[in-house]
Amino acid sequence: MALGWAAAGGNLPRAGLLRVYQIFFSDDQVAGLDYLPYRNDACTVYFENSVIKELIESGAHAGSDYFGVVSHQLRAKLHTAREAWRNNGSIANVSTEPFTPEAFERALERHAPDVLSFGRHPPHDPVSLADQYHPNFSHYFGQIMRAIGHEWTPAAFNDVFYFNYFVAKTPVYQRYVEEMLTPAMAVMDQMPELMQDSRYPHPLPEALRTRFGIPFYPYHPFLCERFFSYFAHLTQLRCAHF
């Protein structure tokens, strides 16, 4: 039985199937979406992670078997990770199948995992690797994890997820948000050092410069992006990769 997910703007399929929200920021981005549009006019330093927290707290995941939240750049980032990063070792997307919502749903049906990512990465330590791009990254990550009760130490994960590009069984997704993402964000709210320049090589949009009071990307979204890989490792989730 096909999952039958509708394209962006379409009606939700009958209860109990796949529900994915896709975040956008301007009307010209809507035409390129594959999933349910979610306009993020109140973007915070946590970027899509604030939306993830809000959606789970509001019960937007109720009635679905699998749930996910991705950005409007889903296709572009999957392509970049596959093509531009192909020689960048572990962070490259090594999936060989072109992404379409229909192909992704077929993979979800075929594997029926706890989690299915939109991309595929070789096993590696995504936290320690991030030190190459964001100074002191693993130090901040370990500090946050200790504050919420986890003694993180450097280790390679068999299953790695970037950009929050995954869907998970709805109870798994809820548990991740309630047990890791939300407590970690509360800790991060008390860490002013995370407002430093993360050295992300792209400029912060002008509107966000005004809102955040800084001209660069802070650490928050990049730290949050690595939480789920650690959560999947800790909880021994059964993972599959598109």
Give an overview of the whole structure:
The protein has 242 residues and is α/β, with parallel strands linked by helices. The protein has one domain (18-241). Helix content is 36%, strand content 11%. A six-stranded mixed sheet has the order 2-1-3-5-4-6, sandwiched between helices. Helix 1 crosses helix 6.
Give the gist of this structure:
The chain has 242 residues and is α/β, with parallel strands linked by helices. It has nine helices and six strands, in the order ββαβααβααβααααβ.
Overview features:
single chain, 242 residues, alpha/beta, six-stranded mixed beta sheet, 9 helices, disordered N terminus
Give the SSE map.
Blueprint: E1 18-24, E2 36-39, H1 48-58, E3 66-71, H2 74-83, H3 101-111, E4 115-117, H4 126-129, H5 137-147, E5 166-169, H6 170-188, H7 206-212, H8 220-225, H9 227-235, E6 239-241
Parallel strand pairs: 1-2, 1-3, 4-6
Antiparallel strand pairs: 3-5, 4-5
